[in-house]
Design a protein that fits this description.
Layout: E1 3-8, H1 14-22, H2 30-35, E2 42-48, E3 51-57, H3 65-71, E4 77-83, H4 90-101, E5 107-112, H5 119-133, E6 143-145, H6 154-168, E7 178-187, E8 191-200, E9 203-204, E10 208-212, E11 217-227, E12 230-232, E13 234-235, E14 240-246, E15 258-260
Parallel strand pairs: 1-3, 1-4, 4-5, 5-6
Antiparallel strand pairs: 2-3, 7-8, 7-15, 8-14, 9-13, 10-11, 10-15, 11-12, 11-14
Length: 282
């Protein structure tokens, strides 16, 4: 099950577009709904190109860049959102730089809010985006004008996303089960639940797992598994997964912890780094 992650400047319509594509509001918190501002990661899903696809909606505000980074780690395809009536903005640049550094090759640019911009402004915004993406891993991505309000361009966007998913191909499965946890919470009567995108390997109900937050792992067991609110016996790479764990408290499982099968992760004192600067535009 592939995953699409959003990116883009604050208030350029990422959550509204995800809701238009999926029929689900990805903003989970009351504060987000009251402020009209995505603060934390949101999740939804839809059928794209005949396959069920998960959407991870990320905040665009500069103060929540760490939450954005938590959401884009396990994606197959990115959806960069730029508002036609505002054009390229500071977090457009910042999120593009993140995707470029991660070498995300497959994605689509949604040029949103075309219903509130004159046609010549839409054309100019498209040319500006094309210019800004030149020389990055995003430069070949299609730019699709769309309105989440009127529905204009949504079918073209779905088609472009389906093409990008096909080009990305199936998720890797080397058999080394691992998942970076992006959310943890407690369900009354069930206990701790963690969510994330399963990056590699299979995860089964009843598996013993290790939660890595430091030099020593904490042991737990998978009591139940869900993917998109449906209980499953086995989760496969690329799936959005919710795992109910026994043996741990929620306080033991911060965002960013690694969940892996026993003896499939280890502590190392070595770090291999490839560093390169990102461009900076005033």
């Amino acid at each position: 099950m592939p995953v699409i992650a959003t990116a883009g400047h604050v208030d350029h319509g990422k959550s509204t577009l995800v809701q238009a594509l999926t029929g689900r509001d990805p903003d989970r918190w009351q504060e987000e709904k009251e402020r009209g501002l995505t603060i934390d990661l949101g999740f939804a899903w839809a059928t794209i190109g005949g396959h069920t696809v998960g959407f991870v909606d990320v905040p665009g505000h500069e103060r929540f860049i760490k939450n954005m980074l938590a959401g884009v780690g396990g994606m197959d395809v990115a959806l960069l959102v730029v508002a036609a009536d505002e054009g390229w903005m500071p977090q457009s640049e910042e999120h593009m730089a993140v995707l470029d550094l991660l070498e995300v090759e497959h994605g689509v640019v949604a040029l949103t809010r075309i219903d509130v911009a004159e046609p010549d402004i839409v054309e100019l915004a498209s040319l500006e985006v094309e210019e800004q993406l030149a020389g990055t891993t995003l430069e070949s991505w299609p730019i699709v004008p769309v309105s989440a309000t009127t529905g204009a361009g949504l079918d073209a966007l779905r088609s472009a996303l389906a093409d990008a998913l096909q080009q990305a191909g199936p998720p890797n499965n080397s058999g080394r089960t691992r998942m970076w946890i992006d959310r943890s919470f407690v369900i009354s009567g069930a206990g701790a639940v963690v969510t994330g995108t399963l990056l590699d390997g299979d995860l089964r109900r009843g598996d013993g797992v290790e939660i890595w937050t430091g030099s020593r792992p904490l042991g737990a067991r998978v009591r139940t598994l869900q993917s998109h609110e449906e209980e499953v016996e086995t989760a496969f790479p690329g799936n959005r997964v919710a795992a109910n764990l026994s043996g741990l408290d929620r306080a033991d499982i911060p965002r960013g912890a690694l969940m892996a099968l026993p003896q499939q992760a280890a502590v190392t004192s070595r770090l291999l780094v490839s560093a390169r600067p990102v461009r900076h535009i005033e």
